[in-house]
Design brief:
α1 crosses α3. The protein contains ten helices and 14 strands. It has 475 residues and is of the alpha+beta class. The strands form five sheets. It has a four-stranded antiparallel sheet. Strands 12-11-10-13 form a four-stranded mixed sheet. It has a two-stranded antiparallel ribbon with strand order 1-2. β1 and β2 form a beta hairpin.
């Protein structure tokens, strides 16, 4: 049993704050509170800030599973049961190529800036415009940089695991990627190391070496921490993920089809910027979620008037995904209700393969040969697009027989197997699937280290239970 010690000093009970940053001193009982416990701060209810491109999914209950026809009769299918899901924000579309390229560019620039900062040393003599390599020195190394007490202390201690204040990059100095803009030979040597070696280039084309684009981050193994009844750095798992999507999936998935144009340009060509990202593994999708969280947290930290720490972005559990896909409808086999795959004008309601060997059928009906740009098909009751078809989507949940049988009816999720189980649940069906596989209750799987031309993802963010509630749409 843990012992709790109370220390009395001058007949007064001293209570230390455990909040991040320590907070302000309690001091003497204020005159306004008259010695009573009156919490300070705003009395307004906390209203969760809706992230850009996301919609609020209200909390609710639904019957989870494939309630309509089941042609497969597999043991892994969803057992019907009523479950409750808390409210959360969800991307209104699948993550696009343009959004994922922001992630790629951030990692590319971070690596380049780190290499330049190491080479710049103490810096000096720079103008702050990138006219010399000295401009790219670490922010703390630059002349005139003032350190606060915390920065001086952390530097004297050699930093802390995973972060060193003395190696903070200066992002205000622009990078120069055009060879004609290189300021000096040393800068050119460092930047050229980011590209494929000349011997590996095709037609002598300068292309960033995607093997060097690795994103490093930590995540906490909560299940092990809870099992040990402890918390600490020993439960932090360090990941270094190669994040460039596998563009060869367009060839590997279809050995007997001419998909070379997609292999050559689907990810990077501007024509596909609003198409869903594919060729990413489950681990790469999780790394993107971490980057998205970091991007928002860094922004909040940069504000003069600090904001509440941003809730983490993550992949949805399959219970959350199915609940959101139903769009507030009861017993809906498809996100639009159903049971038909076309509207009253004969137009298809999702991007899928309508007939054997026929991926288009009729262009007037709005189908596509492969993936489609996001927002080309009607949204569901919650404002979500492409919850059926286009690309299937990774979820956080493992795929096995016990997923439904032993998971709770309150926010179902098997955390103990979430990372260890190599098979992950995939939901929604894709452009290559028949209509049956688009049903909201149908579940499929893929190994987490596999990348496919028909699997993408979207992210979610929790809404605190104490936040102001959103009105639920009823149908």
């Amino acid at each position: 049993m843990k012992r709790i010690f109370f220390v009395l000093i001058s007949a007064s009970l001293v209570i230390s704050s455990c909040s991040k940053g320590g907070g302000s001193s309690a001091g003497r009982p204020g005159a306004k509170s008259k010695g009573e416990l009156v919490p300070t701060g705003s009395k307004k209810s906390f209203l969760a800030e809706r992230p850009y491109g996301m919609v609020a999914i209200p909390a609710g209950s639904y019957v989870m599973g494939l309630a309509d026809q089941d042609f497969t009769n597999t043991p892994e299918k969803a057992t019907l049961k009523t479950v409750t899901v808390s409210s959360f924000f969800m991307d209104e579309t699948e993550t696009t190529n343009a959004e994922y390229r922001l992630f790629i560019n951030y990692v590319r620039d971070s690596i380049a800036r780190t290499l330049l900062a190491e080479a710049a040393g103490e810096g000096g003599g720079g103008t702050g415009t990138g006219a010399s390599i000295g401009d790219y020195a670490y922010a703390s190394k630059k002349a005139g940089d003032t350190k606060n007490a915390y920065q001086e202390f952390m530097e004297s201690q050699g930093g802390r695991d995973g972060y060193n204040e003395s190696k903070k990059l200066d992002w205000s100095v622009p990078l120069k990627w055009k060879t004609s803009d290189y300021p000096d030979a040393q800068y050119a040597e460092i930047l050229e190391s980011m590209y494929l070696p000349a011997a590996e280039r095709i037609n002598n084309e300068r292309i960033i070496d995607s093997r060097k684009l690795k994103y490093a981050y930590n995540w906490e193994d909560i299940d092990s921490a809870v099992k040990d009844k402890s918390r600490g750095t020993q439960y932090l798992k360090k990941e270094s993920i190669a994040i460039y999507p596998d563009t060869t999936v367009w060839i590997k998935d279809f050995n007997y089809a001419y998909n070379e144009p997609l292999y050559d340009g689907y990810f990077w060509h501007s024509a596909y910027k609003n198409y869903p990202i594919v060729g990413v593994t489950w681990d790469q999708a999780r790394a993107f979620c971490n980057y998205k969280t970091k991007r928002k947290s860094d922004y909040n930290e940069s504000l003069k008037k600090k904001k509440q720490k941003a809730m983490a972005f993550r992949l949805p559990t399959e219970a959350e995904w199915e609940y959101a896909a139903r769009g507030g409808r009861s017993n809906a086999p498809y996100p639009w209700g159903g049971p038909y795959l076309q509207d009253d004008r004969g137009c298809y309601l999702a991007n899928f393969k309508p007939k054997r060997g026929n991926y288009i059928e009729d262009e007037k009906k709005g189908t596509y040969t492969y993936t489609a740009p996001v927002k080309k098909f009607p949204k569901n009751g919650y404002g979500l697009y492409d919850m059926a078809g286009n690309v299937a989507e990774w979820t956080e949940s493992p795929y096995n027989n016990s997923t439904y049988n032993f998971a709770s009816t309150l926010n179902p999720y098997l955390s103990s197997q979430a990372y260890r189980e190599p098979r992950k649940t995939v939901r929604g069906g894709s452009w290559k699937d028949v209509g049956y596989l688009l049903m909201t209750g149908y579940r499929d799987y893929e190994r987490k280290d596999s990348a496919r031309s028909y699997i993408g993802f979207r992210t979610v963010q929790d809404i605190p239970e104490g936040a102001a509630k959103f009105k639920r749409k009823t149908r």
